Structures are given as C-alpha cells and as structure tokens.
Fold this sequence. Notes:
This protein is mainly alpha-helical.
Amino acid sequence: NHQTENITKWLMTSSAILDVMIGAVSMPLGVSELVHNGRWTLGWEVCRIRLPLSFVFSGILAYHVMCLSVDRYLAVCKPFLYKRLPTRTAYVMIFLSWIIPIACVMIPVFSGITRLGVEHIIACIEKHDICVTAYNIPAMKTITSLLFYLPFVVTYTAYVFILLASQEQEKVMFRATSQPTRAIVTKTSPNKKANLIVGCMIACYTISWLPTWVLGLVISLEVHGVPYAWFLVCFWLASSNAALNPIVFCLNNSIRQTLFQLFFLSKYNKKN
C-alpha cells in the first residue's frame, strides 16, 4: 500500500529520531542525577533547560503516536480518502508534531509566564541540590492538557474506531472468502500488521508516560508532600519508552516483517 509505505514510514522514522534524542540528551542527565543519589550537580541553568526538554520530548512523542493513530484510522475507516492523500501529508504531520510541543513549552517557559506566582518556590529550589518542576498551576494545567490529555484522548478514540472497523472488516472478509484462503488473507493483511505496531506503540507510550503526567496533575492540584523518589521513578519510566519502541519494532516476528515491508520492500520493488 502506497500510503503505508510513505506516511506511516516517515512518522515512524521521525519517532525513531526522537527516541535517539531522548537517549542522547535526557538519559545522560538522569544518569548523573542517579549517580549522585538524586542530587543535582550540573547547575540550575542546566536544570532549567532539562525540565522543558522533558515536556517537549513527551509532547512530541504524544503527537507522533496520535498522528500514527489518525493515519491508521484513515487507512482502515476511510480507505478511499486515505489513498488520495499525498506523501507530503506525512511531512505536515511530522512538522506539527514537533512544532506544537516546542511552542507550547518553550514560549511560556522562556517568556517567564510559568514562573509567575511561584518565584518563592523557585528561589527555595535553587538553594537545594534538586531538579524538579516549578511552574505555576495554570501553566502546568495548560501544558499537560495540550501535550498529553488532548493527544491521549484523540489517540484512544481513533484506535477504538480502528478496532471496531477491523473486526467488521474481518467478519465481511470471513463471509466473502472460501475456507482455504481465509487464514492467508487475514494473516497477510497490511493494515492489520501496521495496526499492531501502532497499538504496541500506544501501549508502550501509555505505560511509560502516564505516571509522569498523573504526577504533574497531582502537583497542579497543589498536593503537597510528593516524595522526590517519585520524580526519579517517573523520569526513568518515561525515558524507558525510548528503549521500548525498538523492542516493539524488532523482537516480534510479525512486526519485523512489517517494518521490512514498510522501509525496504518498496525500494526493492521499485528497483525491479
């Protein structure tokens, strides 16, 4: 399928680039913090950059997962519309998936909006060797809503429709095909394979990032006394998503075959 080979491929490639960036930027900072038993030794200025980057990376990943879900929704539920979409649709999705989280975080952070009303908290944090989030409640609620809850709702809504449509298509296919060909048609369905990849990515993202965003919601509700160890656990659980995605892509035989088709088979067919 032309769209599966292009739109889905480019979205996954962009997501893989993000995983590399998380591994190269966020995880070394986390390792330094872990080695020093939770103490932050790299200075407050680095901490100020690290916290927004964590939000940005999470938001970019959330929007990529959302775009992949929308891509699969169109492929399964609106196939005729999907076939007419040009490849540049993927570029637009990727651009928006990067620029929206960057704008949602960097503009309020570096304009000082997030610091309004919490200057005393920030001053207190700067006196201690820890690196935690210190944003005012309206900013925190806005960022979490735009970067997690909005794409989260869209992603799961789209995937529910995908599952319902896939089940209906399988029933129709089951009734329309003969007994010997049913298993072959179902097994080789490209949509089913691509849906499996996206479903695994959604599950990995939810498991990895949901605790972090729930913790952010708890903080935004002014719940005091949150142990600092929770921040470390949530950070490493979220960072583990960068390692989970390659496992999802490579360890499962069905997914390996699908990725081979998405990335390499189209080039092989063009050469021949």
